[in-house]
Amino acid sequence: MVKKIDCLGDFCPIPAIKTKLAYKDLEINEKLIIITDHSCAPSNIKDTLANEKCNIYINEIIKGIWEITIEKIG
């Protein structure tokens, strides 16, 4: 299952907070996709989940729009 969070227009730390809350509800091997247009959000989200067992993939899908995929692995 893939869950999505639209963080377009949200300023930091809101995307990281929404991500952390949604991550808690993920089962192992589930994915969470965050869409954001705030340039510091990818690094803040990565830092927020630094102690979690997950894979994080960050792609700038359009100039200024990032898609962050988080896969819970343990």
TrEMBL record:
One of its GO terms (molecular function) is transferase activity. InterPro entries: TusA-like, TusA-like_sf. Residues 5-29 form the UPF0033 domain. It comes from the Bacteria. The keyword Nucleotide-binding does not apply. Pfam families: TusA (PF01206). PROSITE patterns: UPF0033 (PS01148). The keyword Nucleotide-binding does not apply. Keywords: Transferase. This is TusA-related sulfurtransferase.
